[in-house]
Amino acid sequence: MKITDKELVKLADDARGRSYCPYSNYSVGAALLTKDGKVYTGANIEVSSHTPTMCAERVAFARAVHEGRRDFVAIAVVGGPRGQDVDFLCPPCGVCRQVMSEFCKGDFKIILTDGKEHRVLTLDEILPYRFGLDV
Questions:
Q1: Residue 73 banded pLDDT, cuts 50, 70, 90
Q2: Which of 57, 67, 102, 117 is catalytic?
Q3: Residue 102 among the catalytic residues
């Protein structure tokens, strides 16, 4: 079964509901898609000392990599103030972009939404001059 960008965004938004964000009140969900259509979701998990906080994207990657997956084609990222509808894009942070670079090729799709429209970017577009195993 082929999953659409819209469906992947919906899964990311659903994952957002499982966020633990008592410090920022900013909930983020991610849905990571493999070549064969399997989806791994994640939500941000905050802790009081901030440094060990995990972004939703890295939670999804950690779950997938733990299961031995390395064949990623796209990720949808949805974020905004907890309990509110999404009304602006929530692009991955620099650390998440570097994690993506570790496991994905330059044409890996990053799907963002402002609640009305989807914007699709590639890893090469959001992380120019990246470095990693395949570059």
A1: very high
A2: 57
A3: no
